[in-house]
């Protein structure tokens, strides 16, 4: 199977390196030509908004993992950048009969109850509505697509995630961790290497026009995750002082970034529960245990 990974941010390098480590050649396309270093990883310059670039890149591949995201965490930026990006990729995929695999979030779905194998689209924010619209456009396209729904990221490379470096670094260094919302509620987390494994496995499933599957998760409170990071780094516990959601809401009128974060704060003021068992059995994978995942994360500089 010939594979192209578009993007070298939080997710793309994990997908590319997992494929390379099992002996498969893989191409990584970014505007700068950057990407992970490995003898089986070919790094190329690719503008994913340019139809001619996409036609050249898609002409000799079977699967594309679209791991490119918007330049800022704001709904106006998402609309401006993601709609045309995905439209171009879907059109090229349809022309070349390429299967496109996406990392997807829980934003578009009903998380007021357990998110199960047949997730209901019910967005609760403007960013969730954008994700729902992207899912609808994939379903309406003639291209083959699979959206792999991840919960909040953690693990190596999770630079911007609530459970990633924002929590890992202070916990491992013995500093105070400042998570958002209520820190003792159960919360689903997806380890980035597990998301990559799920995306690779999803690419190998029998072709269907559109599919949504759930990535593996572990459940832990924010306090438990912070403590696990601290213990893995040799501390006895973590100092945790949460930022209440009302603080974000109070800053929302003067900051577009704070407005976006405040709109998504429900994910950290309510339990986030995911039952992904049917999906992971279909994919033939399982979640990495929390202790092993946290240990590997802390070992990364």
Counted by DSSP, the helix tally is 11
The biggest beta sheet reads: 7 strands, parallel
> What is the CA–CA distance across the termini?
33 Å
User: Could you estimate the helical fraction of the residues in percent?
Assistant: 25-40%
Quantity of strands, as a count: 10
Report the β-strand fraction as a percent range: 5-15%
Mean pLDDT: 94
The chain-level structural class is: alpha/beta
> Unreliable runs, pLDDT <50, ≥5 residues?
none
Coarse morphology:
globular
Helix and strand sequence: EHEEHEHEHEEHEHEEHHHHH
Rg of Cα set: 19 Å
Which strand order does the major sheet show?
3-2-1-4-5-6-9
Q: Descriptors for this entry?
A:
301 residues; alpha/beta; three-stranded mixed sheet; 11 helices
Verbal overview:
This protein has 11 helices and 10 strands. The strands form 2 sheets. It has a 7-stranded parallel beta sheet, sandwiched between helices. A 3-stranded mixed beta sheet has the order 7-8-10. 39% of the residues lie in helices and 15% in strands. It is globular, with a radius of gyration of 19 Å. It has helices at residues 12-21, 51-58, 75-96, 126-140, 165-172, 192-203, 222-232, 245-251, 256-263, 277-283, 290-298; strands spanning 3-6, 26-30, 41-45, 63-66, 99-104, 144-149, 152-154, 188-191, 210-214, 218-219. The protein starts with a strand and ends with a helix. Strand 1 (3-6), helix 1 (12-21) and strand 2 form a beta-alpha-beta unit. By secondary structure, it is an alpha/beta fold.
Topology summary:
Layout: E1 3-6, H1 12-21, E2 26-30, E3 41-45, H2 51-58, E4 63-66, H3 75-96, E5 99-104, H4 126-140, E6 144-149, E7 152-154, H5 165-172, E8 188-191, H6 192-203, E9 210-214, E10 218-219, H7 222-232, H8 245-251, H9 256-263, H10 277-283, H11 290-298
Parallel strand pairs: 1-2, 1-4, 2-3, 4-5, 5-6, 6-9, 7-8
Antiparallel strand pairs: 8-10
Helix pairs in contact: 1-6, 2-3, 3-4, 5-7, 7-11, 8-9
